[in-house]
Every structure is written in structure tokens, then in C-alpha cells.
Amino acid sequence: MGIDISHLRRRFGQFTALDDVSLSIADGEFVALLGPSGSGKTSLLRILAGLDLPDAGSILRDGEDLLALDARRRGVGLVFQHYALFPHMTVAQNVAFGLRVRPWRLRPRASAIKASVEELLRRVELDHLSTRYPAQLSGGQRQRVALARALAIQPRLLLLDEPFGALDAQVRVTLRRWLREFHRSLGITTLFVTHDQDEALEMADRVVVMNQGRIEQIGTPEQIYRHPATPFASRFIARGQPIPGEVEHGTLRVLDRVWAVGGFAEDQITSITVHVRPEDIFPTQAHREGLAARVLNVRHVAGTVRASLAMAGLEEPLEAEWNEREWHRHPVAVGDVIDVHIQSLTVFGSDADGRVVARKEFQPPHGAAPVTLGPWRRVEA
Amino acid sequence: MARQVLPGFRLSTGYTLAVLGGSVLLPLAALLWTACELGPAGWWAQIATRRVLASLRLSFGAAMLAATIDVVLGLLVAWVLVRYRFAFRRLCDALVDLPFALPTAVAGIALTALYAPHGWLGSRLAPFGIDVAYTRLGVLLAMVFVGLPFVVRTLQPVLESMESDLEEAAYTLGASPSQRFFRVLLPLLAPTLLTGYALALARAIGEYGSVVFISGNRLFKTEIAPYLIVQKVDSQYDYRGAAALGAVMLAASLLLLVAMAWLQRWTRRWAVTR
């Protein structure tokens, strides 16, 4: 049941928009397509809506071939990034459009259309604005009109293209929560495209990470954040930062340290990528096997402290992130030279084709301090 | 007056008013002045003749019809030029401007040669009982010819800037191609179409050179009002009579353009700002 996308390919000239994309979406699921621009997510959305056709591959909905259906008859509701509201129609006329253009056999009576438009506008909390024109609405209101208009045709699949892209940050956060609740109450299978990690992680049941036309990882927000499958997913979702490293005969060499790592299949590996997350870099007391780091700058961002650290053997500074309370116990200032421990590393081994064939999350043994307390607890003791 | 941030308000506005006054208002005032010298009775005697009324009817009737035809044809031409890519598109695009650039007399002679009873097209249409040259149809044809580029050129930029989003949205909502055109595109293009209509209309009402050759200027049948004005001045040295007719045309044109502007505003009533 649900939607089965298999082996979808789409090229535009030299550019590969979709490269062998397969994905299953269960009924009622709320799925985010997350990726940078040009990753193919919008191409996939347009193909699902029937505005474009793939070069190869199939899409089945409950066993029915969706690609054989014209966009008019697909029963797919699409909310455009810039809403694409009809500017010459009022809010109510916009919402009624999908019902009014039906062939007269299928068209509800005028009174029924009016009733369902009113009901929809009540649901999106815009019933008081039904006679306004789109030009008279705010961005968030337009967004909800577009949503109501797409829902009016009672779609079996709802597609949202960058639903919050054109809104300011404040409205975005409010509307995010609202939309998630709205989806819960509707239960329509929904796929939304976004390039914003926070948005995808906060809203979706499952996140599909896309890059260069390929699916890098599919999983729940927690799975992807905790266990990124590829260096791209790690960088894009978990803010993983690359540091140079090598694996040889069961040992990992990173930043002049050598640790034994077990369970890492080295056979087909031609390249190694090591990532560290900002929150896994902790300041520690000197002389405790820490790595020396110079603080380049410190930024306070609403409850968290972010610092850039220059370290020997690294060309780019590493970003570290601590919460404000931890930082208060052991403040560091610009120019300080501190010792840091790396709590956790993710090691990816790729073959000659660039595919990840082995990965391991590794806790360097020097980070023995309990994470919950913070390593500088011992300074006070 | 509030302080202007933009520099040069006095200079540029003064200049604009001077140019407008000198080149537009002054000649119009002179026209009205000359017409007024006749007095109401003299004025009425000039206008209320069968010949003048027939010419006015033809001028305005044919111009309105021609502008309507221009809107339909112009929409088609602009649509094809903007939406499709084909061989010689650039050449076709350039050809649209030809009626702009061509001296109107040249256009008139060319059309006459083509549609005259012995002309290349005229001789082929004659067996079907269709006479173009020296008939009102000829007048209409010449007016359509000179008005077309106005519609095409006003529409083109608007069509180009129109996002395909709206059509796609209508499509996914289940609208058929004709519903997408009539319910979404046409209402959005209406203000622009009206602008094109007004321009083509203004041009057709005032058109002289290209019409007088193909019309043949037959009494009561194919005489246009500008032709009568030229006649009065040319053969009778009747400047006042010419001015009287001119004043009537001026008033009628003004009325039409005001009506167009009002209609256009109505079609854009949705573009309100908060």
C-alpha cells in the first residue's frame, strides 16, 4: 500500500536530476525530501505531480500506475513554493477552483462547493478573509490559502514544494508546528521538499536525504542525525566536519593520535573520511591527553555557544558547540589556547566508485569523562 | 511639501510640463479656439451633414472593429513568439514592427496594389464576390494592419514575465487546457489586452496615409473623417470647418480612452495593495 517509486531516472541535457531513485511511502506518512538545490528533490516532486515525466522508472500507487495518469486526474495536491495563487480570484474563489473546473457530471452543486470551501477555510483559520484577494494577504496567509486550494480536490497525495521558503523566520516556526498538527488531523500522505535541515528533522516522520540526484539515506530524523550513512548525510544533517585521518591494520590515525578500531572492513576501501560533530568537541583540563586548540572566535546563539577552534594539522578551523550553561562553568575567550577532547568520531570507508562500504562510530578512549557532567567538572573537584 | 529624496524634481517636472504643454496642449487649444470661432450654429452646420456623419461613423466603427481584431490576432502572434521556439522566430519578431516603421503611404499603396480588382490577391477574391479595395472592408484591413504591432508589443513583455506556475497550478487542480486559458490566463492578460486595444484604436482612428489609397474615398461609403479634414483644408481652405471636425474627433477619442482606462482599472481591481 502507499506509493512505490522505483528506479526513477531523469536527465535534462547533461544534468542528471534523478539517478536511480527508489522510495516507498506508506499511507498517511509525512515524508521530507531534504537536499541542497540541484539535488533532484523538486524534479521528483514535479514528476509525482504529473508536471514532468521520468526517462525511466515507475511510480505505483496502491498498485496503480501513476505515471499513466494525466496530472489532471492524478488526485495529487501540489502547493507551490511561491504559492501560485490566482491573483484575480478571491481567497474563496481560489479554493473553489479545483471543484469548479470539474466536468459537470462530477462537479458538486454550487451550494456544496460553497460549503466545502467554507469548511476548508475554517480549517486553515482563514474563514474571515474569504473575500480578500491574494495581494491583500500576508505570506503565511497565502501559504494556507494555497494549502486549502490543494486540499479542496481531496487529494490522495499532498506535495509541498519548499512550503516555508518564502516566509520570515518567525512565521516559519509557527507555521511548521501548525502544519505538523494539521497533517496529524488529516492523515493525508504528504511529501514535502526542503533544503532546511531543521524543518525536515522537526516535522517529518521520515527524512529522505538527497544529493546530486541520488538518495543518500532514508530514515527517521533521529536515525539520520545519530547514524548518518554517508559523509554527505553526516555533513548536511549532523553538521559533521571532515578531519584528516587514516585507517591501517585496525588502527585509526587522527590528528597525531593512534587508536585501535575493531570491526572495520578494510578490504575494498580506497579512501577514508573522518567526521566530527560540533557538540562532540569538549574543552578539557590541560595535560589530560587533550588536543591543543586556539579559540578564534566565540558566538552566543540563543542558549548555545559556538566557537571556532584552530588546531595543529587542520587547515580549516573546527566548529565546536556547547550549551550556555556548560560554557559558564568553564568560559573560554578568544585567543585562549585550550585542550579539547573529541568524544565521538564517525569513520567512513569508500570504494573506488565513491560508495560507502564501511562505516564506524568511534569513541576515542581519551574522552573518558562522562558527557553529562562535562569534563571540567574535575577542575572544581 | 515633503522633502524629496530623489534629486531633480523641479527641473525634470518643469521640463516635462513645458514639453507636454508646448507639444500637446498648445496645438489642441489652438484647434479648439479655431473651432469655436464658428459659433454653435456654424459648428452644427459643419458637423450635421450626411457626409460628415457618415465619415465619423466609418472612422470610429471601423477603428473599434479593427482594434478588436488586432487584439485577437495580436494575442495569437505574441503567444506564438513568446511561448514557442522555431526557425526564423527572430525574423518574425522583427516583421511585427514593420507597420510601425513603414511610411503609411507606402503601406497604403502596397495594400491597394495587392487588393485592387486586378491585383494579386484582389483578382483571386473577386470570383467569390469579395471586394476589398475601395470598400469599407479595405478601410478595416488597413486599420488592422497599422494597429497590430501595438497589441503584440504591449503583450510580449507581460507574457514573458508570466510565471508558468499559475498554469501548472490550474493543471494539477484538474483544469482543462481551455479552462486554463479562459479562467486563468485571459483574466490576467485582460488589462494588457485593453492597453493594446486602446493603442490600436487610437492609431486606427487617426490613420490617414494607409487608408486613403485602399478606401478610394467614395462619397458616403468609404470616406474617413481624417480624409474630410484634409479635404476641407486642401481644396476649400476651410480651416474652421476642419477644426470643427477635428474637435469632434478629439472629444470622441478622449471619451473612448477614458472609458478604456476605467475598464482597465476594473479588470485590475484584484491588484490592490494592503
According to CATH, what is the class of chain B? Mainly Alpha
The number of helices of chain B is 13
What is the CA-atom radius of gyration of chain A, in angstroms? 25 Å
Main β-sheet of chain A: number of strands, strand sense, barrel status? 6 strands, mixed
Mean pLDDT of chain B, rounded to whole units? 86
**Biggest interface pair, counts:** A-B, 31 and 22 residues
Report low-confidence residues of chain B grouped into runs of 5 or more.
none
Number of helices of chain A: 10
* Oligomer kind: heterodimer
Q: Point out poorly predicted stretches of chain A.
A: 367-381
Q: What's the CATH architecture name of the largest domain in chain A?
A: 3-Layer(aba) Sandwich
Number of domains of chain B: 1
Count of strand segments of chain A: 22
Radius of gyration of chain B: 22 Å
Summarize the structure in words.
The complex is a heterodimer of chains A (381) and B (274). Chain A is an alpha+beta fold. Chain A has two domains: 3-226, Rossmann fold (3-Layer(aba) Sandwich); 242-380, OB fold (Dihydrolipoamide Acetyltransferase, E2P) (Beta Barrel), CATH 2.40.50. In chain A, 25% of the residues lie in helices and 34% in strands. In chain A, the strands form five sheets. Chain A has a six-stranded mixed beta sheet, sandwiched between helices. Chain A is globular and about 80 Å long. Chain A starts with a strand and ends with a helix. Chain B has one domain (37-267): MetI-like fold (Orthogonal Bundle), CATH 1.10.3720.10. Helix content of chain B is 77%, strand content 0%. Chain B has helices spanning 9-36, 39-47, 50-83, 89-96, 98-101, 104-115, 122-125, 136-161, 165-172, 177-206, 209-215, 225-236, 239-267. In chain B, 33% of the residues are buried. Chains A and B meet through strand 6 and helix 4 of A and helix 9 and helix 10 of B.
